[in-house]
Write a structure and sequence with these properties.
Number of strands: 3
Largest sheet: 3 strands, mixed
Mean pLDDT: 94
Number of helices: 3
Shape: flat
Strand order of the largest sheet: 1-2-3
Order of helices and strands: EEHHEH
Strand content: 15-25%
Structural class: alpha+beta
Length: 88
C-alpha cells in the first residue's frame, strides 16, 4: 500500500480510507450490498486485513500513521481540527 499523503518532516503518513471499501465502523457509508454478500464480505475482510498489515509495517519503520475516513472529509473545519491535534 502507498500512503495518500507523506509528511517526511513529521515522519507521518496519512491514509485516506473510503468508508465503504475500508469498513469504517458504525458509519452509514460502510454498508454491505444486498447482492453477492459472500463476495463482498470476503473483499471487505481482505481490505481490512491489508490495512492492518500496512499500518503495522509503516509503524515498524518508524512512521506515525493517521487514518482519515472519507466521511470525515465532508466538513473542512472538523477535519482541520482533527488533523491539527496530531501536529501541535
Amino acid at each position: 500500500g502507498k500512503p495518500d499523503i507523506v509528511l517526511p518532516k513529521y515522519k507521518t503518513v496519512i491514509l485516506v480510507h473510503g468508508c465503504f471499501w475500508h469498513r469504517h465502523p458504525r458509519c452509514k457509508y460502510a454498508y454491505t450490498p444486498k447482492s453477492r454478500v459472500k463476495f463482498w464480505q470476503k473483499k471487505f475482510c481482505e481490505n481490512v486485513e491489508r490495512d492492518k498489515v500496512v499500518k503495522k509495517k509503516l509503524r515498524k519503520e518508524g512512521w506515525k500513521v493517521i487514518v482519515v475516513w472519507e466521511c470525515e472529509t465532508k466538513n473542512p473545519v472538523t477535519l482541520k481540527n482533527r488533523l491539527s491535534r496530531h501536529f501541535s
